[in-house]
Predict the structure of Lipoprotein.
Amino acid sequence: MKKIRMVPCLAAVAALLAACTRVTEAEGADSGGEACGVRAFAVYSAFGLTYEERSGQLLYDGDRVRYFEDLYPVGEGMAGMTFFDREGVVDLQAERDLSNLPRSKDGSFDPGGVLTGLRVCSETEFQSRDLEPLMHPDPGSAQAGELLSARELAALYAEYQPFGLSYDAERDTLLWDGQTVRYFCDVRSSNGEAPESGRFQGVITTHWTDGGTVDVLTVRDYERPDGDGNGALTRLEACTQAEFEARTAAQSQGGSIRYFEPASNMDNQTAEE
């Protein structure tokens, strides 16, 4: 699923967040999710690093990667990307030769230099990293990666009020017929594939609250789109434990990729996406 600020490939966030709302959009194989990860990590395959599409995991010589970093200076900032998977067992850092920048076809220089290999990092190095942005992504995010205000969240959930769902802004929780909602999922638009299938394209709103007592799913009629192009909302229903486990297992098995882009004024330099 695609987001601008954080691009999660089946991001492992469910167990980390006390309460959060996410609106995520999957726009197809060319721009989001698994294909994005495959494309991003293809350059490292020559050094033994591969990205698994279905699981969202990085593997290095067969071992699951916990942390991967490939950052290089561009002007006063940094470009490149990092990856974090709390279930991984090996940490890696890309090594680059920045002493002789290659020239692109348009005459500009590539600030990324030449990728020369991967280095296994020690536990001490791992502990020194700033993992906060990867371990605890912003609790609310719109499709452009901006935080949703309490007013925006209230407006987002107003659609569900006729079906017994309400939003408590003070506690940042959802209530359904008086019960605190643990997991809420609304597949607003869909290509017909299940969200946990790895082939899903559409828009999903999810909300998590630790300590909730009921899990809720929406039912929409995609043959009757509303004014926003989403399927017409017809009802809410309690999610079974099996459905909850299937959804959350799919969302917790991969890692999170974070991209760093050079400042917009660095037009004379390019960074590999």
